[in-house]
Amino acid sequence: MEDWTKLVVICDLDGTLVYQNTMLLQFRQAIQNSKLNIFSLSFSLCFGRVEFKRKLTQLVPHLENDPVPNPSVIRLLTEFRNENRKIYLVSASEHGFVYSLGMRLFQFDGIIGSTDVNLKGISKARLLVEKFGTKNFDYIGDSFSDIAVWREAFSGIAVSPSAKTLTTIQNEFLNVRVL
What we know:
The protein is an alpha/beta fold. Helices cover 46% and strands 16% of the residues. It folds into two domains: 4-19 and 68-178, Rossmann fold, CATH 3.40.50; 22-59, no CATH class.
């Protein structure tokens, strides 16, 4: 790709755009709403992580309080927006929940969350390659599971990575910088 400003920017949600793990926030709120929700959530886990997230979103479609956005990431996304780059929010959280939350946090060009496949790690990398092509996007993430995505990205930004993630980035990637 000749012009890097035409690359799509992909941003992760948990630990990147927001500080918190939104699934844990949803879970906590579901249990606060009714202690009996623990049973339906536990049962949904028998059918996999995606079904658990679907049930969680049925019980808690919106958090009482939005998670705290990371101002450094918001500034970075605003810079990319000022360069007229397309910006997508892509998360392993359930699609309806991610869409609703993402629309309130930033003006994204697209929002993608888990529907039939848990969009984490290799699954997220595959989806992004199918949609945008290998090395045709920049990726902003935070966790070790994002390593698979950075391998397919043109360049990346790691937001407050753990020591394990940072070591892997330093040993394996020249195209990922730390924020």
